Write the C-alpha cells for this entry.
Amino acid sequence: MTNSVIFFGTSDFSASVLQGLIDDPAFQVLAVVSQPDRPVGRKRTLAVTQTKKIAIANNLAVFQPEKLSGSKEMADLIAMQADFLVTAAFGQFVPTKLLKSATVAAINVHASLLPKYRGAAPINWALINGDKKTGVSIMYMVREMDAGDIVSVREIPIATSDNAASLFEKLAIVGRDLLLETMPKMLTGDFLTAKQDTSRITLAPKIDNQLSKLDFYHKSAAQIVDLVRGLSPKPGASLRINQEQIKVFTAETGSLIGQTGQISILSKHDFAITAADGIAVLLQQVQPAGKKRMSVSAFLNGSNKSLRVGDRVDRV
C-alpha cells in the first residue's frame, strides 16, 4: 500500500528530500508546492525553483502561490486529502486548515537540532556561531515557526572544512534518509514524540546585507573565519579596503601579528588582515567587485597592485 504525500519545498535542500520521496515506492507524491519562480542576477532572469524542476521531470502537479492562505491553490490541496503533508525549506507558513487536511500527519524536515536555530537559515547560523555539531529534526507542523513536537532527530559533526554549501549537501541527505525512516514508523505508531524545551530556543533569521560585512575591529580571527564559512558561497562575506569591495569565500586563521584592521601580511601569494584579537586572517579565495571568484594569488598578481602592509579595511 502506498501513502500519498503533498510536498512543500523550494531550495536545493528541499529537492533532495523530494527526490527521496519520489524514489520510494511506499509513497506517492500527489503534488509539489514551492515558492514562485523569482528573477535572479543582474539580468533578472526568471529562475525555476529546484523542486519545480524535479516535479516537472516526474510529471507531478506544481503549485506556486504567492501566499497559501486563502488561495485557490490551498482549496485544491485540501481536496486531495493526502496522508502526509511534508515541508522542507518551503519559505512560507502553511495555514492550520491545510495542516489539518493530512489524514496521517503534517511534518517538517528542519536542518537543525531543535529547539536550536528555529527559522530560515539554521545551517548558516550553525557555522557562523562556530558550532561543532548540527543535524536534522523532524517535527509536527504547527502554526508557530518550527515549534511542533519532535518526532525524530539525527546529529552529525561539523567538519572544519565545511562551509554553507557542503553542510547543506550533507544535511539534505541526512534529512532525506531520516524522513524515509520516520514516516513508516508514524504509520505503525512505532515512535515517541518530545516537546521542545522552550528555555533553549535560539533563532536563525534570514541573512541580511549588514551581517555579511566582515568586522575586523570587533571580531576575533576565528569569528571572522566562521562568518566566511557560514556565508560561502552565497551571499558571501565582504570587506572594503582602499575603496574596493571584496567578497571573501574561504579564509583561515594565522598567527599573532599586526594591528587590528590592518593588512599584516602581503606577498605574491599571501594576503592577511589582523582581527580584533591580534590574530591574522589569511584570505584564500576572493572576488573583487565586477570580477569572477579567484585565488588570492590571482587577485594579488593581476587585480590589485595598490595594496600595502598597514592599509586599513573600512569599519563596519
